[in-house]
User: Fold these one by one.
Assistant:
Number 1:
Amino acid sequence: MTSQSFPEEFAPTERQIGVLDAVLRLLVDEGDRVTTTAVARAASCSKETLYKWFGDRDGLLAATVRWQAARVRVGPIDRSRLDRDSLAERLEEFAVNWLTVIGSDTSVALNRVAIGAAAKASAKGGRGGRPLDPASLGAIVLENGRFAMGRRLKPVLEAGRAAGLLAFDDTEEAFRTFFGLVARDVQIRLLLGDRIDLSPDTIRRDAGRAVAQFLALHGAERAGSTA
């Protein structure tokens, strides 16, 4: 059975959420050696049910990562009324959500496991390493985590450009700039076990700072406006 393809805004049922939470706990405890048998046992459901809902093991892992990443949201925008304040609000919302998610113990554990699995796969490929196996946990985390968040935010950046509020040539580069301003060294420090103040007030302040810096770099006046 092949992995299922889940929509960008994956909305599992309450029962499915219980399964995904069980997967996260097992990933923390067992690393990437998680099996559908272990998940079925931990979630008190049958393997047949898992296959029906998620496809194979890779589909289950992809759904788990996507569910975790789904917490990083950006609200809808009204392109006809988009201004600098509403654009900044959407960008800050995204930044707050992202910092909140990566600061959770589950996300830190999941990323540690994914990095460890990717390092082992690379080591087996020799001195130059080898590309990530699309079915590996590292590739799944990239595709359904960081890359999915890019697909979620890029339309907002492009809407800002179309409204004359942002100026950039390449959407991916603009997204990477914003991502870097938000992330700074936070994620690597968390992965290395550093204690960082990620209280709601601190996250909100850091998100606002990142948005202000991004707008300073890429902000633009509406075409035809006067000083």
Note: The radius of gyration is 19 Å.
Number 2:
Amino acid sequence: MTKKVIIIYGPPGSGKGTQAELLVRKYGFFHFDTGRFIENVVHSPEAKKDPMVRKQQINFDTGKLCEPWWVLKIVKEKTTRLANSNWSLVFSGSPRTMFEVTGDKKQIGLIDHLSKLYGRKNIVVLWLKIRESTTMKRNSRRRLCKVCGLPILANAKTKHCAFCGGGMRKRTLDKPEVIKVRLNEYKNRTYPILSYMKKMGYKVQGINGEFLPYKVFEKVQKAIGLE
């Protein structure tokens, strides 16, 4: 299979991470979960020694976006290493800001960076569309496995991850007040990227994300030519 970069956009709870993980399991993609990557960086023991990383931690834990120039820098470094290791990549929700997409005079944007690594024609953009009420419902119920990090839709009977048996944890990002901040951040800073990508000639394909994950995945595979 030709090495590809799949970028999946959508509001919080639209299933970006789930679809990315399905691509990992069926086709061997590397899921570059920028949120998880940043979370690991800002909560690492080393972060206590770095004032800049501590500053980003405050933004992250309150639902605000970390400073784009910092995110762009660390993501480009990581993606270069992955490309050199011959991985196909799937991004779930990032790049999140126009700055991360386009960069500035000091550093090239992520899209041009990925185009150089993988080729422009091998970059596919998907947009999962769900209602705001669906966002609130899904995220308020979501937990993550403490061991493998996979998402779990929790209910009264759910105590362990179905994949590895690990316990659950609730992210600070999934508190109701933080979800509202994240929705506003998505509308104001991430959503405009879709129009920009279309303008630049990238094919942006909308997919209804309200259905069960396996149904959405059928449309995802078709959209990226892997069905």
Note: The two ends are 13 Å apart (CA to CA).
Number 3:
Amino acid sequence: MKIGVMKEIKPSEYRVAAIPSAVAELVRRGNEVFVEHDAGKGSGFSDDDYREAGAVVEADAAKIWNSVDLVYKVKEIFPEEYKYLRKDMIVFTYIHSNAHLDQTEALLKSGCTSIAYEDISDDRGQWPLLSPMSELAGKGGFLAALHFQQTVNGGPGRLLANVCGAPAPVVTIIGCGHSGMGAAELASSFGCQVNILDINYNAMLEAKEILPKNVSFLFSNRTNLLKCLKETDVLINCILWPKTRKDHLVYREDLKLMKPGSMIVDVACDDEGALETCRSTTHTDPVYYEEGIMHYCVDNIPSAFAQTASTTLSNATLPFAEAIASKGVEKALKDDKHLRRGLTTYDGKLTLLETAEKYNIPFVSPDDLVKEF
């Protein structure tokens, strides 16, 4: 199969879908891999690294788009790239179709097969292609708070660490998943008093066995949340909010309970999602204020740690890319229910239920679809 590894065009996006060692594996299995010039530069991988791995490095992005069978990316398809979509193409990347209606329509119109990293599942009911980035996002979210709490960066001058003679800062984390655990690991190791809110008691019990004693676990209800808001220095939201919900966990009026100089970090970056006042920001313009509270809501935090992020993402996605390339996409989908869970569009049909429900687009079950293969 001909596989194209593209350079990302999203501003401040430095990750690459396949690192050189992954390309070498794909080539070893008989595939032709075309890597766009400088695709790995932001992650510390040169064109020569890819050539040594057996790839063809191509400066003309259009040439790659128009010649490959499988497009291997990190971020969603942008409007500038819609013209390249075609029926006999497979797109393998983070898609987030329920957040990008125009992209969904372009994928459907083209008739291409698109598979979203974020929706591929595993036997434990988890999201193995999302979790590596979630951990990085959680840790990066805490590091961002550490940065923006500094006086020179617009904060109150509070060091998020346990310093002799000063009270330990309080960090409240909503969600005990991979992002929440990543944030808690760093915050607790710095000596902060950490509160974690979740509704999954078993998840909190498991986390309690791993994290140190300066981490407290609270059931996520309105009473506990408001109590935490009053005492916290940094609130880090790490839960995804269903796109169809109109309510919130933290409302605008709740921000008035927070201390002066406190801060909100929204790792999930769902606009008006779990946090009503959240709107996505970028690495070049990362913060804004609502009700006097600084908000950091960068929607691609892992890109700040591009080499680590690219390595972990490539490791996670490679087995699925190999299966698609060796079996063909239809057999790969038929053989693997977890890969099938990630199918977003096929031959002009929408196969992701939550997107269909949000935009009132007809839905075709991927399980029913593969019976026709």
Note: The mean pLDDT is 96.
